[in-house]
Specification:
Blueprint: H1 2-7, H2 9-26, H3 32-65, H4 72-83
Length: 102
Amino acid sequence: MFKRLKKNYFLLLSTFLILYFFFNLLSGERGLISYFEKKQILNDLKQEESLIISKIEDLDFKNSLLSDNLDLDYIETLIRERFLFGKKNEKIYIIKNNDTKN
């Protein structure tokens, strides 16, 4: 039996190495499956980055409206939204959305 193993040593070793490299190609830290997972994470992070950039641009715009040159229309809109403030003889209705399913 030992003579058989000696004869087939190269075949066994090459089979083991091929299986080892094939397994590491598909799985592992730098494998194909990990590549697709990292690619999905990268796409998610790019979408999150674009969302955050749009929020920052919106906040910069709102901040610019509150800078030295005050935009009185924007300030009036803020006061109406936050403090439920209205003009004389103006009715303000607050509509609450109650999503109850029966």
